[in-house]
Amino acid sequence: MTHPFLDLPPLSAERFAAIEDRVARLLDTRQDVVITQGEALLPLEGAIRGAAGPGTTALNVITGPYGQTFGNWLRDCGATVHDLCVPFHTAVTAAQIRQALTEHPEIDFVSLVHAEAATGNTNPVARIGEVVREHGALFYLDAVASVGAEPVLPDAWGVDLCVIGAQKAMGGPAGVSAISVSERAWTRMAANPNAPRRSYLSLLDWKERWIDGGRTALLHAPAQLEMLALEACLERIEAAGLDAVMGRHRDTARAVRAGALALGGGLEPYVHEAAEAAPVATTLRVPAGVVASELVARALESDPALPLAAGGGALAKEMIRVNHYGADATPAVVRGCLTALGAALSQRGLAVDVPGALRAAERSEPAA
C-alpha cells in the first residue's frame, strides 16, 4: 500500500531552487540563498569554518549560549577572538560594538545572535549593522529564532552570512535550514585554504557545484519531507502576510509579559527592558527559594502541551521560558501558561492573582 509520507516522487532541482527563491523573498535579499539539509547548527558552523581561519580576528558577541558556541568554533578555526559578553538580561548596543571595534581595529569578522530564545533577549541588528559596515568587517548573524517573529533583512542591515531555521517563529520543520551569503563572504571563503570542501559543512560546494552551475544538479538527495514542509511553511506565511505573522508574535510576547507582571508570586521578567525582550520567547525569573525546573514540571501537570520550559544549564534553577512561537503564538496559549504557572506558584504557598494576570494579558492585546 502507498503511504503519503513514504512514497513520494523525487524532489527536482527546479523545485528545490524555487523554494530557495521563496526564502530569499522572505528575507528580502538579493544575496545567494542556500537551503541546507539539516538543523540550523549545520550552516551556522559551516559559515564560520568557511569564512574564518588563522588570519581572522573576530568580535564575538555573547548574549546567550549560542554566542559562546560561536566563539568556540572561531577559536577552533584558529581565529583570534575578542568576546564581548553582555548580561543575559539585556541586549548589546551599537555603541558597545563600536567601542570594541575601535579598541581592536584589526577585527574583520563580527558574530552575533539576533534573538536568543534561550535567554529571551533580542539585539538591535539594524543599528549594529551600520557600525559593522562602517568598520568593514564581515557580519555573521544567527537569525534562527528571530525570523518570522521580527524583521530579518540581510541586505538592508549589511549582513554577509545570515542563517535561519524554520522550526521556531516560522512554524515549520526542524530538520532544514537556510543561509544567505553575500558576494564578499563567498570571496572570503574562496580565499580561505581551511574552508571545508567536499564536506557536508561546505558552503563552497553549494556555491561551485549548485549556484555556479545554474542550480540544475543537486549535490545529494534532498530531504523530501523537510523540503515539502518548508515549502508549506513559506506558503502559509505568504498567505497570512509576514507583517501579520510578526505582529502575532509581538502581541503574544506583550501579553505574556503583562500577564506575568500582574500574576505576582514573585515571578518577574528575566529581561529587564521590554524593548530588549524577544518576541519569540519570554523568559521569567522565579522567586527566591523556588527552583524553575520544578515549577515548570508542576505547571505542566495540568497541560503537558504548554510551551513551558526551564532555562538550560545553570539557568534551570532560576529561569522559565515561555516559548510562544509558531503555532503557540496565540492568546489561548498565553492564558494557558499564565493559569498553569499561577496554579504551580499557588501550590508553593505564594500569593498570585490569576484573574488579574489574564485581564492584564487581554488588555495588552490589540483590539480585533
Number of strands: 13
| Rg calculated over all Cα atoms | 21 Å
* SSE class: alpha/beta
Query: Largest sheet, if any?
Result: 7 strands, mixed
Return the CATH topology of the largest domain. Aspartate Aminotransferase, domain 2
Work out the strand percent: 5-15%
Number of domains: 2
**Name of the CATH architecture of the largest domain:** 3-Layer(aba) Sandwich
Number of helical elements: 13
Overall pLDDT metric: 96
Strand order of the largest sheet: 1-9-8-7-4-2-3
CATH hierarchy class name of the largest domain: Alpha Beta
What is the CA–CA distance across the termini?
A: 47 Å
Key traits:
368 residues; alpha/beta; Aspartate Aminotransferase, domain 2; Aspartate Aminotransferase, domain 1; 2 domains; four-stranded antiparallel sheet; 13 helices; 13 strands; globular
